[in-house]
Amino acid sequence: MYEYTTSVIQWSVWALLLWPQHLTASTPLDCRDDQGSLSRCTSISQEKLLDRVIHHAELIYRVSEELCSLFEELFIPFPFRLQSNQAAYACITKALPIPSSKSEIQQLSDKWLLHSVLMLVQSWIEPLVYLQMTMERYDHTPDMLLNKTKWVSEKLISLEQGVVVLIKKMLDESTLATVYSDQSVLQNDVQPEVLESVMRDYTLLSCFKKDAHKMETFLKLLKCRQTDKYNCA
């Protein structure tokens, strides 16, 4: 119990020191106006909007790394951490037609890069809300863990709005087809055992971190193609 309490204190102090940096460094990407339209972002130039979207994706990935590390330190015994690396098949976005290898990603068109980011973003909005709900049922869950999860969830919605406007600007597309992931893992009326619930949430966080890195990578590749089309590795 002493080790757990010490761990919580250490992580809380560390996170509190870093947390304001995320907030002050964040560039606003709230596209919706009072009527619910995305007009706030339509007046921004394509170049600046892409920069803001990339910055948002960078922050989301950075905080997702912190979330995974904090969750591991607080709830996951070391032997179980190794299992998460072998659980890629359990990721809820596994069925999405999005390549993982570097060579395949390089061959994606700008259109497919953007739509892949949008698919990933939209696939994670509901699972992150679910994650907040389940973690609130834990005993002694630090507020910092809950706040970070809520922050990422809110920023993901802002990222979705920015990507939607970016697609309209770059591809001149006014309608979008939403592709949903297989979220059967979230549909369970029976309350799981504590360890099962913790491991399931840990898998969700690990998968989200992996997909958040994909979002950032795809957007940066798109940015590179706008400036140096033939030297984007």
Automatic annotation (TrEMBL):
Source domain of life is Eukaryota
Question: Does the entry feature the keyword Disulfide bond, yes or no?
Answer: yes
Signal peptide start-end: 1-26
Entry keywords, A to Z: Disulfide bond, Glycoprotein, Hormone, Secreted, Signal
The record's annotation in InterPro entries points to: 4_helix_cytokine-like_core (IPR009079), Somatotropin/Prolactin (IPR001400), Somatotropin_CS (IPR018116)
Entry-linked Pfam families: Hormone_1
Q: Where can this protein be found? A: Secreted
Where is this chain primarily localised?
secreted
Annotated PROSITE patterns: SOMATOTROPIN_1, SOMATOTROPIN_2
Q: Which residues form a coiled coil?
A: none
- What is stated as this protein's family in its record? Belongs to the somatotropin/prolactin family.
Name the record gives this protein = Somatolactin
